[in-house]
Amino acid sequence: MTSYFNVIYLTLCHLYFVEGATQTCAIKQNSSIKNKTTTSWMFQESLVSSKLDCAAQCLTNPSCITYMINRNTKVCRLFSTRITQYNTLTSEAGYLSYDTCRATDAFGSPCSSNSNCKLANTICVDNMCQCDAGWSYSQNTLQCVRSCVHYGTMFTKIKQSYISGNDLITLTAPQYITASGCGQACVAVTSFTCLSFELDTTFGRCYLQSVTPFLVSLLDFLQLLGTTVDYYQRNCAYV
Ligand SMILES: *[C@@H]1O[C@H](CO)[C@@H](O)[C@H](O)[C@H]1NC(C)=O
Ligand SMILES: *[C@@H]1O[C@H](CO)[C@@H](O)[C@H](O)[C@H]1NC(C)=O
């Protein structure tokens, strides 16, 4: 196994020189993700002729942090974050997952406290680094940004927090009282650009809004240990 890994590594270095880059990029398989895949945070999918082609596609695209290759079907999936709790993993035979050298300090890096999160404006939430409240993750620049040119379908959760007094739509039907149900409603709304939502699973409320903590008074963004409401920030689309 070690020698196989080395061969891939050396060949990639070679490919990288072919592309004119001077940097090398080590690749590590995440052995806890086998025969599982996801499309959340995925920005490109293609058919490749080999595992090496998939690695080369990832390394030559500056937005690629992690890739998955299906050894059976040769489907190659590129991701602009590490695989995190925000990825819905489903079982599918043949998939393996690899992190590139860009995964160090990237969105989704493991952490135990905020000081472990080196990317600007990231904090440690549930043992992974993600953008702080109000910041959206850009899959294009791999940074946390104050606003996006185009908003995507992924959200990050800030627990026990909400923006006071800015709800434009309140939904109570059971299909909206989950993170994915309320998120889909936020993405689907056309009368305004939905930038965030709040979910109260205890009292069965999904609130859609067109603001982030940066667009309201500081005093209107509340982080309260006792509240049953969680805040979800919409992230940018890959364009
Ligand atoms: C592998 O992926 C799992 C699931 O996303 C993650 O929790 C873990 O930290 C990853 N392992 C490494 C070594 O990055
Ligand atoms: C993954 O699926 C392959 C068949 O594609 C099988 O041979 C292998 O044992 C499976 N690995 C794990 C860890 O489940």
Please render the helix and strand layout as text:
Blueprint: H1 2-18, E1 28-37, E2 42-47, H2 51-59, E3 66-70, E4 75-79, E5 90-99, E6 122-125, E7 128-131, E8 136-138, E9 143-145, E10 151-158, E11 161-163, E12 169-171, H3 179-188, E13 196-200, E14 205-209, E15 221-223, E16 229-236
Antiparallel strand pairs: 1-5, 2-4, 3-4, 3-5, 6-7, 8-9, 10-16, 11-15, 12-14, 13-14, 13-16
Bound molecules: 2-acetamido-2-deoxy-beta-D-glucopyranose (NAG) (2 copies).
Number of separate helices: 3
How would you sum up the global shape?
A: globular
Tell me, rounded to a whole number, the average pLDDT.
91
The strand count comes to 16
Backbone CA Rg: 19 Å
Q: How many angstroms separate the termini?
A: 37 Å
Give the strand content: 35-45%
Strand order of the largest sheet: 1-5-3-4-2
Structural class: alpha+beta
How much helicity do the residues have? 10-25%
Low-confidence stretches: 1-7, 13-22
Cofactors, ions, other ligands: 2-acetamido-2-deoxy-beta-D-glucopyranose
SSE order, one letter for each helix or strand: HEEHEEEEEEEEEEHEEEE
Keywords: Signal
Pfam family, one: PAN_1
Describe this structure in words.
InterPro entries: EB_dom, Pan_app. Residues 25-101, 148-236 form the Apple domain. Residues 1-20 form the signal peptide. With 239 residues, this protein is of the alpha+beta class. Helices cover 15% and strands 36% of the residues. The strands form five sheets. The chain has a five-stranded antiparallel β-sheet, covered by helices on one side. Helix 1 (2-18) crosses helix 2. It is globular, with a radius of gyration of 19 Å. The structure holds 2-acetamido-2-deoxy-beta-D-glucopyranose (2 copies). One 2-acetamido-2-deoxy-beta-D-glucopyranose binds next to strand 1.
